[in-house]
Design goal:
- By secondary structure, this protein is mostly helical.
- Helix content is about 60%, strand content about 0%.
- α3 (about 55-75) crosses α11 (about 210-245).
- The protein is elongated, with a radius of gyration of 47 Å.
- It starts with a helix and ends in a 10-residue tail after the last helix.
- About 20% of the residues are buried.
Length: about 300
């Protein structure tokens, strides 16, 4: 027996490492819980941001609620989005800045501001006088704090166009609000504008937002109504198609030519009324045919 064989016999085997039992993953939040958390975290901030775009509290509240209703209807898409808050914000901004709201009497004028804040009133007036695209760019970049590419993506514009809108909006605001023209560098002006917009947004009382459960209920009811309406419309179209198919002619029939007036044809006439003398001759002829001499009939031999 060699030394290697002796060592092999005396060497004890290494103890086996027990395999760890798999730890079951913790259950994640349900879709309703995730939606409620998103609503609780961002609804108030979105309301204040939307107020900077519209100057109307009721419209801002309505826009945020409509945006969350659409988010719940399309929750599988929103839940996996890179920025769910940005998805809801884009929908809320689009609804709030729709030009159709100008036709509503309650949304024609901004809400009154407190009399003890003249600077806030001037800043809001200058902001609302900007074109919608410039106003939205300024709020997203200087108010919300997005960078230039993100602002360009959300406003559906190129980066150079977004930069141009931002500079134009800042210059228009600085003309109306003198303290915003004091900073020399764009970064200092952006920081001051961010502070002013935040102060203006936080100064507004938050409207009583409905609960996320109510949002989900309203969204589901609207989705049900639209589904039933789509089914009814489809059934109506199918019924009309069947009726048209059954009642439609199988071959083409040439339509009759329109009637035309024909000239130069004499009027249609009839037998004249007999005079008494003509009636007497007529009776005489009839009598002669009956009582006259016998006719000669040839005989066959």
């Amino acid at each position: 027996m060699t030394q290697r064989d002796t060592d092999a016999d005396t060497t004890t085997p290494l103890p086996s490492v027990p395999s760890e039992s798999p730890v079951p993953p913790l259950p994640g939040p349900t879709p309703a819980e995730a939606f409620d958390a998103l609503y609780a975290r961002s609804a108030t901030a979105l309301f204040r941001q939307t107020y900077l775009l519209t100057g109307r509290r009721h419209l801002s509240k309505e826009a945020v609620e409509r945006a969350f209703e659409q988010a719940w209807q399309r929750w599988p898409e929103v839940a996996v989005d890179r920025d769910p808050v940005g998805w809801v914000r884009a929908v809320a901004y689009e609804y709030a800045m729709s030009p159709w709201h100008r036709l509503r009497r309650s949304h024609r004028r901004p809400d009154p501001q407190p009399s003890d804040a003249p600077g806030s009133r001037a800043l809001l007036d200058a902001l609302l006088d900007l074109p919608p695209a410039y106003r939205r760019t300024l709020v997203l970049y200087d108010g919300v704090g997005l960078d230039l590419p993100e602002t360009a993506a959300e406003t559906e514009a190129s980066t150079p166009a977004t930069a141009g809108r931002l500079m134009t909006a800042r210059a228009a605001i600085a003309e109306r609000v003198p303290e915003l023209a004091i900073p020399e560098s764009p970064d200092e002006q952006s920081a001051l504008l961010h502070e002013q917009l935040g102060t203006l947004a936080l100064a507004q009382p938050v409207a009583a937002m409905i609960t996320p459960r109510a949002i989900r209920t309203v969204s589901e009811n609207k989705a049900g109504h639209w589904t039933r309406a789509a089914i009814a419309l489809t059934a109506l179209l199918i019924g009309l198609t069947v009726i048209t198919t059954v009642t439609a002619p199988e071959h083409y029939e040439t339509p009759p030519a329109p009637a035309e007036r024909v000239g130069g044809v004499p009027p249609r006439g009839g037998p004249q009324k007999l005079t008494p003398k003509e009636r007497k001759v007529e009776r005489k002829l009839r009598d002669e045919l009956i009582r006259g001499p016998a006719r000669l009939v040839p005989q066959v031999r």
